[in-house]
Write the structure tokens for this entry.
Amino acid sequence: MDLAALYQRLYWHLGPQGWWPVQKRGRDHRFEIMVGAILTQNTAWTNVEKALANLRLSAAMNPKQIIKMPSKRLAALIRPAGYFNQKTKKLKIFSHWLVKSGGLRSLKSLPTSQLRTKLLSLWGIGPETADSILLYALERPVFVVDAYTRRLCSAAGIDAGDYGSCQRYFESRLPRSRKLFNEYHALIVAWGKLYGNKKTRGEALNLVRA
DNA sequence: CTCCAGGGGGCCA
DNA sequence: TGGCCCCATGGA
């Protein structure tokens, strides 16, 4: 089954996921999306939401506040997201880079490949987090690969290979659309939860098989 | 009690 | 490169 048809199936069965709209209630959520991408590393999203709420309530959802804030205090705010010492360091390094780069506005003019290389050079930003930031916050047409994507490929009989191979597999077989990639990745995660549940695994397998 | 979330870094062979 | 361990909370 081709990837476009697979997308249609996932969408039909799981519905729109609506991950991370850049604009919500007239506000710019790009920085929050980036923070979320870092905080959600190996962490349940429900826990990330608590940490994000703490940052918002403390008026700390911006890079300058993150930089200024003592590490102990930042760690306390993001505590529910787990790995708080490492993630405190990651958020500070990332925020420093963002401010030093001139903020979100100045990133718009940079090519995606250059941005990706820069993100990957930062301590705490690996391939999935970099691509999530590029896709969901910076709205670049980059396909995000994660453990669920591998599982789906495996279940669908697709030999996707390593991260880069898997990414190229999807990017080369789909229209290079930021909105499509956004929804597709979110649908794969939703499928992964279905697959992870013993009671619905059969349903998940049916979705990816002819 | 165990398992694992919308990973990544460090180390070692 | 590939395998392991570490990081840490909270829900199932």
About this structure: The mean pLDDT of chain A is 96. DSSP finds 13 helices and two strands in chain A.
